[in-house]
Design brief:
Radius of gyration: 23 Å
Pfam families: PrmA
Family: Belongs to the methyltransferase superfamily. PrmA family.
CATH topology of the largest domain: Rossmann fold
CATH class of the largest domain: Alpha Beta
Structural class: alpha/beta
Enzyme class: transferase
Helix content: 25-40%
Catalytic activity: L-lysyl-[protein] + 3 S-adenosyl-L-methionine = N(6),N(6),N(6)-trimethyl-L-lysyl-[protein] + 3 S-adenosyl-L-homocysteine + 3 H(+)
Number of strands: 15
Order of helices and strands: EHEEHEHEEEHEHEHEEHHEHEEE
Largest sheet: 8 strands, mixed
Main location: cytoplasm
Length: about 300
């Protein structure tokens, strides 16, 4: 079986409406990408993890997939009319049937965090069987180790977990940080997330990795103080959660914050210095990790 793929260059003003109209007209899929991707004119668009990007590329390209017997020209004209746009020019190519599962899996290789810590999809052999290997597949919950914010937290855990610590992960996503802490020697780990899917994914991933961790929605979470509190979320909630997170850290314990853009580091460090002796920030690809030691309460 084969499909027809239409490539349509347009601009950001109509790209989203046209892509939606193509789906309504009968396209099997419609994706928007940078028309200049891979060239010197490529236009990076950045957003914080979990937040929608509020703009498209100035020159966008829609890739729309149609059945092999579809009248693509007529469907594109119908979609353009519905979107209130002129009928665009397009190019057409045939897409042959492929093993899409195998093709998708081939795009995700093991991720090296350090010599002793790797993130390995279940369909791959571990590159270093003697290392600590977290088995984690890409899924619905954020956090597979590939994003700099997650990587920064994993690197900190790898360097600082000595064994026997209690860990609290606020905004656990896939559960990767709590699971990594346990596999590195932590005594216990609790994770919290506002997304029920994240809580389920975290529990499944813990079972897959053979560790016992507890994951909760916020209203169900236990009131605990931990040796290490991690929050790889976003700058906006971190601005509001300082007192809450500080309350979960034992005196002398550590806080690890990520999901922070480099130009937000000074502000966030200043906020958390009300409770913590803050360390210098660590940067990776424009993202920041902040850490600090909880001062004893008076």
């Amino acid at each position: 079986m084969a499909w027809q793929q239409a490539s349509i260059d347009t601009d950001s003003r109509v790209a989203e409406a046209l892509a939606d109209a193509l789906m309504e007209a009968g396209a099997l899929s419609a994706a928007i990408e940078d028309a200049w991707a891979g060239t010197e004119q490529e236009e990076p668009i950045f957003g914080e993890p979990g937040e929608p990007v509020d703009k498209l590329w100035q020159k966008s390209r829609i890739l729309a997939l149609f059945a092999d017997d579809a009248d693509v020209g007529a469907l594109i004209a119908l979609a353009a009319l519905a979107a209130g746009a002129p009928t665009p020019a397009f190019t057409l190519e045939t897409v042959e049937e492929q093993d899409w599962v195998r093709l998708t899996q081939s795009q995700f290789d093991p991720i090296r965090i350090s010599d002793r810590l790797w993130i390995t999809p279940t369909w791959h052999e571990a590159p270093n069987p003697q290392a600590v290997n977290l088995q984690l597949d890409p899924g619905l919950a954020f956090g597979t180790g590939s994003h700099p914010t997650t990587r920064l937290c994993l690197q900190w855990l790898d360097a600082h977990i000595q064994g026997g610590e209690t860990v609290f992960d606020y905004g656990c996503g896939s559960g990767i940080l709590a699971i990594a802490a346990l596999k590195l020697g932590a005594a216990s780990a609790v994770g919290v997330d506002i997304d029920p899917q994240a809580v389920k994914s975290s529990r499944d991933n813990a079972a897959q990795n053979g560790v016992v961790a507890e994951f909760f929605l916020p209203d169900d979470a236990p009131a605990i103080q931990a040796d290490v509190v991690l929050a790889n979320i976003l700058a906006n909630p971190l601005r509001l959660l300082g007192e809450l997170l500080a309350g979960h850290v034992k005196p002398g314990g550590k806080i690890v914050l990520s999901g922070i853009l480099a130009d937000q580091a000074a502000e966030l460090s200043g906020i958390y210095s009300a409770w913590f002796d803050m360390d210098p920030p660590v940067f990776d690809e424009g993202w920041t990790r902040l850490t600090g030691t909880r001062r004893a309460t008076v």
